[in-house]
Amino acid sequence: MNSSRNLTLSDALCEATHQAMKENKNVFVIGEGVTDPKAIFGTTKDLVNNFGVDRVIEAPLAENGLTGFCIGSAMSGMKPLLIHQRVEFALLSVEQIFNNAAKTHYVSAGKHSVPLVIRMIIGRGWGQGPAHSQSLEPIFSYVPGLRVIMPSLANDAKDMLYSALKEKIPTMFIEHRWCHYVTGDVKKSASKINLDGPKVIKKGKDITVVAFSYMIYEALLASEILEKFDISSEIIDLRILKPLNLKPILESVSKTRTLICCDTGFREYGISAEISASITENLFDSLKKPVSRIGLPNRPTPSSRALAANYYPTAENIIMEAKKILNFTDDILINMINYLKEKKPNIRADVPNPLFKGPF
Amino acid sequence: MNSSRNLTLSDALCEATHQAMKENKNVFVIGEGVTDPKAIFGTTKDLVNNFGVDRVIEAPLAENGLTGFCIGSAMSGMKPLLIHQRVEFALLSVEQIFNNAAKTHYVSAGKHSVPLVIRMIIGRGWGQGPAHSQSLEPIFSYVPGLRVIMPSLANDAKDMLYSALKEKIPTMFIEHRWCHYVTGDVKKSASKINLDGPKVIKKGKDITVVAFSYMIYEALLASEILEKFDISSEIIDLRILKPLNLKPILESVSKTRTLICCDTGFREYGISAEISASITENLFDSLKKPVSRIGLPNRPTPSSRALAANYYPTAENIIMEAKKILNFTDDILINMINYLKEKKPNIRADVPNPLFKGPF
Amino acid sequence: MNFKNNYLDIYKNMLRIRLVEEEIAKRYSEQNMRCPVHLSIGQEAIASGVMNHLNKEDKIYSTHRCHAHYLAKGGNLNKMISELHGKASGCCGGRGGSMHLFDEEAGIMSSLPIVGSVIPLAVGNALTIKLKKERLVSAVFFGDGAIEEGVYHESANFAKIQSLPVLFICENNLFSVYTPLNERQPSADLTRHAKSHDIKYLRCDGNDISKVNEFAFEAIEYIRKNNQPFFIQFDTYRHREHCGPNFDDELDYRKKNEVSFWFENDPIINEKNRLINDKILTENENKKLIDTYLNEIDEAFKFADQDSFPDPATAESFVYEF
Amino acid sequence: MNFKNNYLDIYKNMLRIRLVEEEIAKRYSEQNMRCPVHLSIGQEAIASGVMNHLNKEDKIYSTHRCHAHYLAKGGNLNKMISELHGKASGCCGGRGGSMHLFDEEAGIMSSLPIVGSVIPLAVGNALTIKLKKERLVSAVFFGDGAIEEGVYHESANFAKIQSLPVLFICENNLFSVYTPLNERQPSADLTRHAKSHDIKYLRCDGNDISKVNEFAFEAIEYIRKNNQPFFIQFDTYRHREHCGPNFDDELDYRKKNEVSFWFENDPIINEKNRLINDKILTENENKKLIDTYLNEIDEAFKFADQDSFPDPATAESFVYEF
Ligand SMILES: Cc1ncc(C[n+]2csc(CCOP(=O)(O)OP(=O)(O)O)c2C)c(N)n1
Ligand SMILES: Cc1ncc(C[n+]2csc(CCOP(=O)(O)OP(=O)(O)O)c2C)c(N)n1
Ligand SMILES: [Mg+2]
Ligand SMILES: [Mg+2]
Asked: What is the domain range of residue A249?
């Protein structure tokens, strides 16, 4: 009996947490706002009612300390889930994450574990502005010893959070705020899955698109448009940025001989740089064109929607890159863009695209 | 009258600081140990005697706070030079650096400046171990608004520090401890130079090698060996990792049609990933072989010299990559490695190579 | 400096701030101010009382809840309302939104959304003041939550050992978002974190404008004379939700009697009544004041409406200052 | 628990630590211990006195200056000396070096080189103790410098509001590297940072082993009974350079009379004299003790010498725990 329902990704995360806490009394949740009425965008709803204040700990404002408390408690037998409403707040705790969470298992030659999951949310839209909107995954992905997960699909998000809470690896679980709204078929029970890397979420043969987190939705939209014009794209959800498993990407690119990578963060020194460099090293002779990268331009996020408009890449950018690679005609491009505009009428850059509500 | 002497890079930095402080009374120096007998590996020697405790401020242990004090004081008219003896200590201040140092000029639409220079030292050798040895430049290079400088040559280090102190851009000045020992001809006077990017430091035609900081010395050594076997390499000192200026690299690779990039830090998600991806995007059709990347393997730095031995890439790795690209014979490779071993006899992995004392 | 008991001016200042923020609240649902807003309604006495003793040249630093400080210190109203609208004439040219207000001409240096992050900046400005011998005061406003961040302590210690002219103003509104102070700290007496750093301190009801005015005077006088830091705790209360224009007491996170106690202790209503009682103000004059301010505010909103959006082509400027 | 006045045991413990570290100092120049060492020579009474009241199951956390804590708590000597040599049997298999000592069997959880970084870990362990109802104590040792880091305050506040059984032990040796406390903080009374967090505290001469023993007992008893944090400041002095095997008073960063005051107040010599005076120990027994320990230490160095280096092929293991 594993029926599924249409749920938002945020509800799916909430369910995963309830189930993990029910099954393992060593799991506890801690963070600023975890017990409050807004319950971290609904993702910690009812936890405190079900599990009490000992296991659902409302925290003072002390992100660096909190991270250290969680590491110490993870090393001594608990399984903390620490939550930051914005990834920026975790910037205060980078020393703890880099030195103590990431390295303790290695430095102790395997004698200590740090089974800690840190959920961090990338804010976006509604004028969040420069300090509440950053995609900081490359910072964490640089550090061996950390696992970096960025979910896009609701059921997958549930399984990944649940599985991360079963394992012993210090995990940065980075959620894009706009993915919270997305819905999908979510199984009632939670499954322990292998957190082993990227997944092909849509089969195709002409072009490979690697994306993750929110950019999956832009990629799916682009793919739909391309399909209308007989271009078949294979979409890979990167899911796990560290440790990085290139195998599924290599397989796909071996077939399509083309690749577009999409970042939620900055293009320069971003995640796609590593993927582009690695894939090119391995498949230099098969690649028809250089790998395309899509990401944010080299500047902070402005608050004003007027300035945010051309800031975030969308399906349109993916289509433009596809044109560069596949060399279809300008006419086709224009038709594609027109078709896209029909599907996605004048949407403001600062609110989630209602098209992307799913279910996916 | 601009005579020069043979100085260590650390003495060159010290001179730059004296000169900058003499010329501009708004420059002050702050950090843990800046007035102590060891004087930050000699780089702050005599500053406090010359300029007094008001301008050479011995700091309490409070890296996050210190960074904020410097930002506030930079915004209000001073030019602070903040020094961390290890780059890891700066991890406590990443929130201040990312949000306040990097973004204030942008967010204030140019009304505020943060003319702050932060010197950070990468420890290496003598069992520094996992938390005193990290190359964290990709973390900082990801952030638009920051300038990231990594010097390798003594006179250039002097000019770059001096020039950074003249400009208004928040600058991460990251020094490799082993570069401190290197000597070079250093001009007596300091020059304000353009901090505009990479520099060809050795001309060549068969292969381009991009490196920075300590890896420049491994690259120069490799280049010398290659030269013995009639392979001419062009060496580019990256110098300024952010903002990234690819032009000199593009020019060189257009000519050599080959590229090896060397990181002092991790290979995965490292600086070379961006260079590889960017150069390939631009010169895909000219490249004879995929860009090679050299960097640390995906694991923390162990303390034991037995484990550190195969950890740090050297000239040998550069030569091996050159072979992959240029396809010279196994025999030549063996001769090269033998020649290298002669030049660089059994040196311990945990102390600086005396070969690299210079002058360069 | 002499003590300034210009209570009518202070009252006007408070009243104006209240009216600005009520107007923001009223219009917020029109969705033209597309950024989070943290209103200071209920907490105005602190901003107005402290600024009464700061000169234009003195510097202030603030947080996400910065409207009152900005206005009380003399920040330009049009630039503020434009900024909330993401328009080109906003103080940040639309780049910052409501949590990044500043107006250098008025000595408002910076407001920052990361809790605690602005505190060391104010200390750094005080260091500039010391090094440049400027004889100014650098004042920083922050909440009861911010004092939990380690950086507060690093800032207090440095200010003390370097003898810096910085005023720490902790506005204790008893909450960090929905979480009450007593779940986060062992005591509501936050001056213990001044004492421990050997910093002089005072504490009072932050809704009692005459106390605020007196204590602020004492603190600022002390700083100017001694070039030493000072810490004041003002107890107060916000009327509306943490972030947004509405009341949210239907969520029941604040005790009913606590809410009613503080709402009845409204600094502006109390002061108005006192001024009328003392014949310093008449109801009629008060009405006129309100009209004047509403007019000014209306003009500011019109200004913002008519102001253009920043040209997207300018989005690339000012990443670096070459 | 009853108060343990087993001073001969404590003396032995201190003596052994001293001899281990003197041996390290003696052999350091041979360059086989290729990692930085921060010796505790002069500060041994604190480690020995505190551990006297901690059980094997109780947990401790330490810093870069961790040798004394490790040994006093019962850490394996061979594993420590091997670790300093970067050898395979070292407690970290050679990966950590002298600043990463731990021995889980002896309840030594972690030592960390980043100042202040270990403090919240100990608090986290105390949280585990609370949640698992283990009735243990988590103790953390740190210096007078570490208390300047914001994270100390975040840790103290959380320990208090969560009622956690954690013992904060601040070893004030008056210096952070070469910088004296009075250049870094307004007062040498560091208990002010316990008081401000409403944490019980004591302070005493950390070189007076009977005081240390009594105060540690009182603190640990209190924690076990009340499940509340406790803070002790022990004033002490290191004899040698901050990092390395040598004396460095020729650098003149410490006042001559301060140095001689503290050197004359050597916890081990004082205690030896007292024990001999009180007829609990004879010179002859003391010699025998020294011989026994030197033998053990010599064995440990032999062990480390003969121990193999870790196989470079193993360098890849344990990055992740799949
Ligand atoms: C470092 C950090 N943590 C968390 C937040 C989210 N946050 C924004 S305002 C706020 C409440 C701060 O409370 P307080 O300092 O008392 O100010 P108040 O809102 O009550 O004026 C929180 C937790 C943040 N912005 N920065
Ligand atoms: C965050 C950080 N800043 C600076 C250092 C460099 N450092 C290592 S030990 C030390 C002195 C610490 O002083 P204290 O805490 O009093 O310990 P002590 O060495 O006196 O035992 C410093 C500054 C560090 N390791 N970590
Ligand atoms: Mg508050
Ligand atoms: Mg000390």
From this structure: 199-343
Residues with CB under 5 A from ligand 3 (ion): C 143-144, 173, 175
SS3 B195: coil
For residues B355 and B343, is the Cβ–Cβ distance under 8 A?
Answer: yes
B229 located within any domain: yes
Q: Do A88 and C36 touch (CB under 8 A)?
A: no
Residues B114/B146, Cβ–Cβ less than 8 Å: no
Single out the residue of B198, B184, B211 nearest to residue B322, CA to CA: B211
Of B187, B208, B235, the last residue of a domain is B187
Give A292→chain B minimum CA distance, Å.
7
Q: What is the pLDDT of residues C99-133, one digit of tens each?
A: 999 999 999 999 999 999 999 999 999 999 999 99
Give residue-wise pLDDT tens across range A83-111: 999 999 999 999 999 999 999 999 999 99
Enumerate the residues of chain D whose CB falls inside 8 A of the CB of residue A71.
120-121, 124
Choice among A126-140, B75-89, B313-327 with the minimum mean pLDDT = A126-140
Return the ligand 1 atom nearest residue C65 CA.
21
The CA distance from B264 to the nearest CA of chain A, in Å, is 13
Q: Is the pLDDT of residue B151 over 80?
A: yes
> Quick check: A270 contacting B, CB < 8 Å?
yes
Residues lining ligand 1, judged by CB closer than 6 Å? A 32, 61, 63, 89, 92; C 64-65, 113-115, 142-146, 173, 175-177, 242
Q: Which atom of ligand 1 is nearest to the CA of C172?
A: 16
- Whether residue B25 is contained in a domain is answered as yes
Token pair for residue A16? 């995963």
The answer, yes or no, to whether any atom of ligand 2 lies below 6 A from the CB of B89, is yes
Residue count (chain D):
322
Q: What tokens appear for C31 in the block?
A: 């969705």
The CATH number assigned to the domain holding A276 equals: 3.40.50.920
Residues A242 and A136 placed together within one structural domain of the fold: no
CATH topology of domain D7-304: Rossmann fold (3.40.50)
Mark whether A152 and A215 lie in a shared domain: no
The verdict on A94 and A213 lying in the same domain is: no
* pLDDT tens column, D90-131: 999 999 999 999 999 999 999 999 999 999 999 999 999 999
Verify that A59 and A108 share a domain, yes or no.
Answer: yes
Note whether A243 and A159 are same-domain residues: no
Whole-angstrom distance, CA of residue A291 vs CA of residue A258: 7
How many residues are listed for chain A in this entry? 360
Closest partner residue to A284 among B99, B281, B290, by Cβ? B290
Is residue B192 included in any domain, yes or no?
no
pLDDT in tens, D207-234: 999 999 999 999 999 999 999 999 999 9
A131 and A221 in a single domain? The answer is: no
Query: Which residues of chain B make contact with D316, given a CB cutoff of 8 A?
Result: 297, 299
Contact A110, A103 (CB under 8 A): no
- Report the number of distinct structural domains present in chain B: 2
Per CB-CB distance under 8 Å, the chain C contacts of B26 are: 131-132
Domain boundary among A148, A167, A187: A187
D175 pocket-lining for ligand 2 (C-beta < 6 Å):
yes
Q: Can you point out the beta strands (E) in D23-118?
A: 59-62, 108-111
**Poorest-pLDDT segment among A307-311, B175-179, C186-190, D195-199:** A307-311
CA distances from C179 to A42, A290, B202, C232, D236 (A): 16, 52, 62, 22, 41
Regarding whether B210 and B168 lie in a shared domain, the answer is no
Tell whether the model's pLDDT for residue A60 goes beyond 70: yes
Query: Which is nearest to D91 in space by CA: D67, D113, D114?
Result: D67
Is A65 close to D110, i.e. CB distance below 8 A? no
Alpha-carbon gap, residue B61 to B79, rounded angstroms: 21
Looking at residue A27, which CATH number applies to its domain? 3.40.50.970
Q: pLDDT for D20-38, tens place per residue?
A: 999 999 999 999 999 999 9
Kindly provide the ipTM of the predicted complex, given to two decimals: 0.98
**Would an 8 Å CB–CB cutoff place A37 in contact with chain D?**
no
**Residue B268 touches chain D, beta carbons under 8 Å:** no
Is residue A357 in a domain?
no
